[in-house]
Amino acid sequence: MFSTALKEGLAIGFGASFGALARFAFTPLIAPEPPAEIIIIFIINFIGCFLMGRFDPGPFWGRGMIGGFTTFSAVSFLAMQTSALHAFMYMAGTMVVGLAAWELGHAFRRSATP
């Protein structure tokens, strides 16, 4: 009845909505003040990248739930509210740490595979 692309798109969309809601609920509990929000978003993105590397999840959990939980758009938004040097350092740091987190998760996955 549904095409494979439509099923995958719906899975990603539903997963992303749950992931974004989880981040939206999680962030103010830990960082009620805006300056601390930068650190929490950084940690959330690290966790998401690590989970993607570790588990190689499918459309719902990966690109959906974890993709919605992480937020590189918030990184950009928060970076725009600071000086150019701080914005560059934060964005570059987020990318480097995100890639390192994915590699670390992927290394755990490889070591767990016989």
Automatic annotation (TrEMBL):
Keywords: Cell membrane, Ion channel, Ion transport, Membrane, Transmembrane, Transmembrane helix, Transport. It is found in: Cell membrane. The chain crosses the membrane at residues 35-53, 60-81, 87-105. The keyword Ligase does not apply. Pfam families: CRCB (PF02537). Its main location: membrane. It is a multi-pass membrane protein. It comes from the Bacteria. It catalyses: fluoride(in) = fluoride(out). One of its GO terms (cellular component) is plasma membrane. Fluoride-specific ion channel. Important for reducing fluoride concentration in the cell, thus reducing its toxicity. Belongs to the fluoride channel Fluc/FEX (TC 1.A.43) family. This is Fluoride-specific ion channel. It comes from Corynebacterium meitnerae.
